[in-house]
Write a structure and sequence with these properties.
eight-stranded mixed β-sheet; single chain; mainly beta
Length: 270
């Protein structure tokens, strides 16, 4: 199996970059084989098996790729001809070639970019180059600061209720256990490692629940999603024990909750 997905570049790179893409080869008893057709583009690829990166030059013919071991690839694809701003050699010299990135750039720059790229868990596998290219020695380089998609997974679902005591008793019966956190302003139940919360404000109803997705840096993630078109619904607030929450409204009118919860324990998830 080969999983492939494309992502648009940041507007600052749109004049140079066609897309960012990820691929995951998952051999199941036999090598993964796929055919790549010429597209007149040049790509930089980083793989967990070649973390410093390499360049795939323009192809003069179709290539067949065979992968025998699980491999994650993260890549940037340049628009036709646009890579000349990033490499100090004629692009024709890269045709059908796959040189290491540190053969074309100073090694410390290739290492810095790779380190920033792989600093998060490779299982996330989705990266956005939110940076403006920097010009060094007459050539363009990517800044080694990359911003990754930082939503990690579900953490909390919050339900507004009109009668907190009644709702607490009802959910205790439904869930088979009482709350681990019980205050007049919030009641929290632990459910399979996640949290079901009750709040005595808001409007109960079929659209009343708010789902909170986990993040590692809530300030950076709020800023990133606002740049993508969301608006602030509820500002970041600390709710105790280092836990921070925020609510954004997506471009379609839905509420997107974010939570930074240092107490979340992935080992408790079932």
């Amino acid at each position: 199996m080969h999983l492939y997905q494309e992502f648009p570049p940041h507007p600052a790179l749109a004049a140079h970059v066609a897309c960012l893409w990820t691929g995951r080869a998952l051999p199941a008893g036999a090598p993964v084989r796929h055919r790549i057709l010429p597209d007149n583009c040049i790509d930089i690829l980083w793989q967990d098996r070649a973390p410093l990166g390499f360049v795939a030059g323009m192809m003069s013919r179709a290539h067949r790729v065979e992968t025998a071991q699980p491999t994650l690839t993260v890549a940037v694809r340049f628009l036709p001809g646009a890579a000349r701003a990033f490499f100090d050699l004629p692009l024709q010299a890269l045709q059908d070639a796959h040189p290491a990135l540190d053969d074309l750039w100073p090694r410390h720059e290739a290492e810095a970019l790779a380190a920033a790229l792989w600093e998060r868990e490779q299982s996330v596998a989705i990266f956005h180059f939110y940076n403006t290219p920097a010009r060094r020695d007459g050539m363009m380089r990517f800044s080694p600061t990359l911003e990754t998609v930082m939503i990690n997974g579900l953490r909390t679902v919050k339900y507004p209720v009109a009668d907190l005591e009644r709702a607490k008793a009802w959910f205790t019966e439904v869930l088979g256990a009482g709350p681990y956190f019980d205050q007049p302003f919030y009641v929290g139940f632990s459910v399979g490692g996640f949290e079901l919360g009750l709040v005595p404000d808001g409007t109960p109803g079929t659209a009343g629940a708010v789902v909170y997705w986990g993040v590692d840096d809530i300030e950076a993630e709020v800023a990133r999603i606002v740049r993508l078109g969301a608006t602030e619904h509820e500002a970041i607030q600390e709710v105790g024990e280092g836990i921070k929450v925020a609510e954004l409204k997506d471009p379609f009118g839905n509420v997107l909750g974010l939570i930074l919860n240092p107490l979340f324990d992935p080992a408790a998830v079932r």
